[in-house]
Fold this sequence. Notes:
The complex is a heterodimer of chains A (540) and B (516). Chain A is α+β, with helices and mostly antiparallel strands and 540 residues long. Chain A has 16 helices and 23 strands. In chain A, helix 9 runs antiparallel to helix 11 (364-373), helix 14 packs antiparallel against helix 15 (470-481) and helix 15 runs antiparallel to helix 16. Chain A is 32% helix and 21% strand. Residues 10-53 of chain A have low confidence and may be disordered. Chain A starts with a helix and ends with a strand. Chain B is an alpha+beta fold and 516 residues long. Chain B is 44% helix and 21% strand. Chain B is built from 13 helices and 20 strands. The radius of gyration of chain B is 39 Å and the shape is rod-shaped. Residues 196-202 of chain B have low confidence and may be disordered. At the A-B interface, helix 1, helix 7, helix 8, strand 12 and helix 10 of A face strand 5, strand 6 and helix 8 of B.
Amino acid sequence: xxxxxxxxxxxxxxxxxxxxxxxxxxxxxxxxxxxxxxxxxxxxxxxxxxxxxxxxxxxxxxxxxxxxxxxxxxxxxxxxxxxxxxxxxxxxxxxxxxxxxxxxxxxxxxxxxxxxxxxxxxxxxxxxxxxxxxxxxxxxxxxxxxxxxxxxxxxxxxxxxxxxxxxxxxxxxxxxxxxxxxxxxxxxxxxxxxxxxxxxxxxxxxxxxxxxxxxxxxxxxxxxxxxxxxxxxxxxxxxxxxxxxxxxxxxxxxxxxxxxxxxxxxxxxxxxxxxxxxxxxxxxxxxxxxxxxxxxxxxxxxxxxxxxxxxxxxxxxxxxxxxxxxxxxxxxxxxxxxxxxxxxxxxxxxxxxxxxxxxxxxxxxxxxxxxxxxxxxxxxxxxxxxxxxxxxxxxxxxxxxxxxxxxxxxxxxxxxxxxxxxxxxxxxxxxxxxxxxxxxxxxxxxxxxxxxxxxxxxxxxxxxxxxxxxxxxxxxxxxxxxxxxxxxxxxxxxxxxxxxxxxxxxxxxxxxxxxxxxxxxxxxxxxxxxxxxxxxxxxx
Amino acid sequence: xxxxxxxxxxxxxxxxxxxxxxxxxxxxxxxxxxxxxxxxxxxxxxxxxxxxxxxxxxxxxxxxxxxxxxxxxxxxxxxxxxxxxxxxxxxxxxxxxxxxxxxxxxxxxxxxxxxxxxxxxxxxxxxxxxxxxxxxxxxxxxxxxxxxxxxxxxxxxxxxxxxxxxxxxxxxxxxxxxxxxxxxxxxxxxxxxxxxxxxxxxxxxxxxxxxxxxxxxxxxxxxxxxxxxxxxxxxxxxxxxxxxxxxxxxxxxxxxxxxxxxxxxxxxxxxxxxxxxxxxxxxxxxxxxxxxxxxxxxxxxxxxxxxxxxxxxxxxxxxxxxxxxxxxxxxxxxxxxxxxxxxxxxxxxxxxxxxxxxxxxxxxxxxxxxxxxxxxxxxxxxxxxxxxxxxxxxxxxxxxxxxxxxxxxxxxxxxxxxxxxxxxxxxxxxxxxxxxxxxxxxxxxxxxxxxxxxxxxxxxxxxxxxxxxxxxxxxxxxxxxxxxxxxxxxxxxxxxxxxxxxxxxxxxxxxxxxxx
Lengths: 540, 516
């Protein structure tokens, strides 16, 4: 109810504001531009310079406006896509989601995997001219780990106990417990570094907005953010890596919520790269020779979550019956036009540590029998929450239709995603919901722990169905502290087997990333974690 | 004679009304729509809530071929034995066009699913061995025969150091033809140099590293060149002791020739994969079937019959229209009568409230109400009623003010008739004609607002067969497909237009100033 009031108030506020604007005299619209001293800014004097400086700008249409440009203050992949040209971390993921050194040149674990020491790259400077060194690493990590600063990624870095500066080029990260996944955690784009100067500014003046003043070490530096219009970045002349210096004059990220509009922009040449294509349009784009289409499996897993606190889902047979009742192939063909594969574990196949499980093949008879054995011969009523985008609604609809065949009558209720997360976090009548999870770190721990560990119960993490299995908890904890990777992987595989068998979710599908671009643009990389990288892109 | 002098007002109305051809047609249409709404469950050919594919069997319609098939895959081992797919550790399946068909390993077999019309090829691979089979969906065969399997052999698998021999290669195509020997294969490669499905991926400008086999024609590769060397013509030469294999590949399909030098072959390896069928026929009936005799309006994104959904949706649409406007009209008329008759502070109070409500655009007011009450059909009815009320208050008050001045009202007042009776018997009938006209017109608007609300996802059950919700679900695909948006849209247009035309006709017929 509170959320609704808020929305109503917002609506009325907008109406009022609109009225006021309409009443105002047509004053010249003022746009506030960040005073960016861009060396490569397109010169406006004379038509000659204008022509020679034909702006080779790459426009990327993304699905939403970034939440923030502070890498430690966002949790969504979309914001990370926008931040990528500006920020870098010690490590990064390559396009196979393997962690590779970036601002570090090498790293070394101690024997029991409680410490990892990084050797830092020398000669790296931030966009504000300040140098990158071990102090910067410590300051950044300490800043995000301080709860008082209220950054969204605070929880993510809770594995760190201490950051020790050995000398300007060596830094040791000590974890609370042995943690073999530490390097993967530090390769995640949220473990990127802001300049020490901007951090000090924030410390001196709490009103300083880090979300809007990104200063990183990347090949591009921040130029301008116009609300609801675009975020623009321009090349940074003193970028450390000559081979990967910026090759275009600027990159502009435009938030375009409607997928149809993104396609129209690509076709009209207003956008060069567009993400999250609706699968129905993918074919049309792929057949057009002036565009390139990229599809590859992502790290996302779609599932139907269930609240295990409710009596009806406490019997494993009910949960398995629901898994047997859904024809996953039918769902994939029907809803995502084949651009997905059946989820055969709780994590996607390209996640490090994935182990394939035996799929619950569609079998309505067995499902009905299991339901009857559990005492729900005539099924039951349920409420299925979903996000309100057309893709999620279509999935929910399909699941509902299929569940009805075994007598489970689910009612679909769509909510705006923020509202939905709030309702799940605070268990405001949770029953069934359509969920999507992608481990940003690309490895099993971040795919399993937040969803299935007892310590991850909502609201602290994503276990909104309150699944709790001591064995799984133990395996996950053990795996993390096992320095031997093979042993750790075995434990993850075992955990996945138990989870798949326990069926706290109805495992649906692993969708493909579908990205399209105009053929004039080259050097675009799509990471399995949804991120579209245009750092190296060129435009002809 | 007498009749001509003072004809019954009803007859005059009827005469005037019948002269308006559009209004009469609209009335007929509206009656039809109402009949459809009442009879929808019996008229609808399919269950609007379930995919039609689930209903074909019950209706005795031959569903034809299947949307998915299970294919047995066997592996031929180097010692001649045959293994089932499930015994092979890792079997990967790669479809050239997953929009047409996809495949995955499921237990013993491989399940192939149709996703869209057309034909494509699916590559099976286990280790270094790979085979291919073709999938034709909905009979749309592109006539292309792909390379399905390679069969290669040598005279001897155990060689002496320095021994030489030549591999014999045979290729099987998906149409069953066999190409024996290098020359035939070379001829085939030349002829099909531009095979679209198999052509190695050109650099598409995406920076992602790709695992693609650049070689296009028949190639021979030794897995361990230290043990055996192989030429491009298949000439094999043993150069070192050990055990290895020669990989023969053509357009992604490959087979292995196990070889051992100066020692016997130890354990059998997978030499090639054999799918049970070379080409599989499937049918795609998942969704978006175009309009046809079987499905007059086609099917939607969940493969539900749009015609049935439009019919069943009529009921809810009319319910929203009639009930909400009736409630709004009843409350509005009542308040309008009071305001107009009593005047003074009551009038001022009611009219100022009306002004406030009228200051909001109708749809915004309705959205605000839904935001307060939550989605659902009852709330939609309430929301639409709320913004109907002020309009009726206005017009009824105006009409009451003028009727109040009539002599017969004054007369009734002077002989002491109660206010209640005057309002009900003398004034209300005078406002009735204008109420009727507005009622009809507002129903059209109410249906439109109701559909808009459910289009915006505020209609409660978004999966219900409701015209607005149907449009909303289909809007993303409207650039590729016209039928899922066209027919629900048409239904809304026809219904709203009918009510508006009828309202126009009524107004003209009830207007005393309008002469015949």
